[in-house]
Design a protein that fits this description.
Chain lengths: 305, 305, 305, 305
């Protein structure tokens, strides 16, 4: 198995040259475009890995999966999905158009930026610090890694270059989708995106989802089974932005990407997978990460379809 | 099991009053809004049914599943998906906007009208009669029902009220997506939509897909495994139009609806399901059909997620 | 004055190289990209001209001005503008988006293709032949040129390459904007676009509008004063497609362009102007034609603002 | 003449009941919906007035005319119109869509909110206080009224309810249209909108534009002739938002409205007109104000077309 993973890394290294490291957040542009890592956390307890599996990177949009779980547990699914839709969209992850054109002015789903910011605004807490701390603690619990923290440089960088996210948030404030103070909500959002993880950490989150909400190392249930199922479903239809359909056809596993280069995948009943590769394709997904998952899915017949 | 199905019909009959029979094709408006049927064709050979399972209705958009299979087998998946995309959309099934706004001017996926018309244009044949006959024969083979035929009244009705579909087709002709004569392509499209089926017929098609391309009654493979997988995936992400995300979360089964009131569902490795109920919701999906599938999925734990 | 016009032609000849002759209608691509002509028909009876002022070219979208006059006279302004809007748009002349997105699904104005096709559908007549003959007779009357006729080759070429216009027309048929048979309406539309004119002819139409509806050579009123004013206003706000704002600021004269390379302009109380130059800019307007009008407007202080 | 104006007020009072006072800025909702005023400042020095012509109201979007003049004088027209377009749009005054969909991501024109905020960002000054003071001084000069000042309550109200304008501004910051600090730019924008004027004041601004940039009472030129012409042109094509086409056809005078209920109009070579009526139509224009201008234009033949 480790040999298989080593091979997958080598077979797909060539793809890193086709992609580009994210530059719109200056700190992210410092990543090594050729880095590649993979980590599998199987539900039977086995763990396999290869490449730069222990390199730290920021979780970015993969955090949307965690905040969606918290928001549903805090508010119930009815409240969450009357505020944010659950429909995939062919528009880009940072698109603002549907907020003006769709009748109900809801963000279309929790995996695009508008929907994710609205999701974060629903998480309970007496202050933005408390809200973020709840997200951080939940992330540590889901990964079994008490050392997870934010990368301060990335957080500051996000905060100062987030004009499009500010536009999305203020638009939603104007239409009533967001009820809280916009700057507080955005501060939590920038922090959640700046949490540093490894392939192992995200594989562990994927394993918990694959295991219907129970972490593998101590059998603790941290989210209800229904929440795990909802999240996996939305990852499948919306998790790879406007390449979600392509990913479903070619890989067929619930997954969520982040512009830091990570992809978090959950193979129901079998395993969580974390891959890493900071060179991105034009949709904002890790280019080598997708190719590694495609080869792995074909080799091990992982598609759910 | 039959008792379960009888119960599901009764439990959800109330929903038929919330929906409306399609009226834009005059012939469709004659359907009984209170009709409800269900048919399960399990891969182990068992068949179960209840309600109006033997009532005939036109296949409508469920035919998009059949033409997608034929188009891929005729042209290869590369050709099909360079002509038509595979991304879900939050726009309505008959929307024309993306044909103008998206860079490549491809229809977004084969399950919305624009993409389905383009798919039909790719099916081989020396004349539009030959193309349709190939679709009809394939449908008879996939259902094991040699008596399937078109409802002439519906076909004529479609043909004379299809201004929006004509607009979609001429737009795609103008951008080069469709290369054949538009009126010929549309004629095939109207005919494929007018084929009459029962819940049993569509359950059989679902069973073939669930069985990775092999029909259950004689173990004949009629499509390659990969084609079956692609089609099930696209049904999951795009099959219920701009309610696909909602359907995936609440039911979690690859499915395709038609405005005649049918829904064709494929539970991988387990069964095909056909449901029927002509009263539609505002998205154009059978309102009671969705509710019956939701109850069935919950009862039998059918979600793939 | 003739010297001024000769100079304007020479000063702006260089612009012809920046533009391209229309190619989407094959016949139009045969035009000489370097041709340039200008004709002024002053209300005091003076006429001035230079360059290829007697070269024939097809009237194309300038015919929208004539059909708008007829449609208003046939139906009254209330009927016309409840069917077609009078608002300028930043979308291209052949855009279909607003037909789906704007609440009332009306074409935005009579100068873009959708609105012009709807306008033609409102002109009275017992057959499409009669409708077109009324347009032809009106054009002959407005120009004082009984020899105007259609260019058959262009008409056939339009008819066989008009997929986008067909899409617009069928879309409007589907939403009820067009009530007549679509192919009949389009046949009239292709014919009206194929009428052959010279700079002199279009200058004469402009002079009639400048003179509030009265032709100069025999003082016959051919349209009411109010119709002339409405048409000049809509030419100002919408006549140069999505470059109308730019044209208003830089030239400031009511005008309408055609992809054959002509621009018809009406300087209120003073003169009609016809310019010609088949090389078009990216918006579909004659590139040298605009530059000639700009120089002329500056020299003679023609802006209405 | 005063009798004519009195009659116009009475004839159109009924329209005030069809409209609604703006409520999205809470302070504005306190206005008297039945108030109506009119003031004419003719270039020959005559002044006429009727109704609530001396009632103060906030200038709101009519300030866009003043900032456009300053921005052009500060930067030249090339710089201004390479940053902001000059094309009318059929979208609403606060629409954000075109900022994402149009190729160059420029706001379409300086009369809609996005374009006006970008225009303000171009006005020179070492601080936002200095920028606003320049606008205030210019407004006092253009009106001949040294007492003009901001309404502090409206300014505070704008500042706290301007989520949509914030969204527009941050979006443009993200695409590079706005280079300055967004909150500073918005602070100036809210202040410029909060300046209090009367019908007389805005009639005076209109007279200056009608007089090609020269104020009537002391013959001082305060803007170049070309700037006056550009501004009048853009008022004609874009000044009444997505009702600009309707206004041009029915009234035919360069004009700009504000949600405070004012309309500033400039009849070239003849007069400036200020009308007031806080009840607005659905496009955000004074409903009785438009009707009063329509009657006045018809009575005195003021259309420029």
């Amino acid at each position: 198995m480790n040999k298989l993973l080593d091979g997958i890394i080598e077979n797909n290294r060539i793809w890193t040259k086709q992609g580009k490291v994210a530059t719109y957040i200056p700190e992210l542009s410092k990543a090594d475009p050729q880095a590649m890592g993979i980590y599998i956390s199987a539900l039977n307890g086995e763990e396999h890995f290869a490449g730069d599996y222990s390199t730290k990177f920021t979780i970015q949009s993969m955090s949307k999966v965690l905040t969606l779980m918290l928001a549903i547990m805090d508010n119930g699914k009815e409240k969450v999905f009357s505020t944010i839709g659950m429909e995939p969209t062919a528009d880009a992850f940072n698109s603002i158009i549907n907020l003006e054109t769709k009748n109900k002015q809801r963000p279309l789903n929790p995996m695009i930026n508008s929907g994710a910011i609205a999701t974060t605004s629903l998480i309970k807490g007496n202050s933005s610090e408390e809200v973020f701390n709840r997200i951080l603690e939940f992330t540590r619990k889901a990964t079994g890694n008490p050392d997870i923290n934010i990368n301060e440089a990335v957080y500051e960088s996000e905060k100062h270059t987030a004009d499009r996210n500010r536009a999305l948030a203020y638009f939603m404030k104007g239409t009533g989708v967001i009820e809280n103070d916009v700057e507080n909500v955005l501060d939590v959002y920038f922090k959640q995106c700046s949490m540093e993880v490894t392939c192992k950490d995200i594989a562990r989150i994927g394993a918990m989802l694959a295991n219907d909400g129970v972490v593998c190392w101590n059998q603790e249930r941290i989210i209800p089974r229904e929440v795990a199922r909802i999240v996996k479903t939305i990852m499948t239809t919306c998790g790879m932005y406007d390449a979600s359909g392509h990913f479903a056809v070619h890989i067929g596993i619930p997954a969520k990407s982040g512009v830091g280069g990570g992809i978090l995948a959950a193979v129901p009943k079998r395993a969580g997978i974390g891959v890493f590769g900071p060179a991105l394709d034009e949709k904002g997904n890790s280019i080598a990460g997708i190719k590694m998952l495609e080869e792995l899915s074909n080799e091990l017949d992982l598609s759910i379809f």
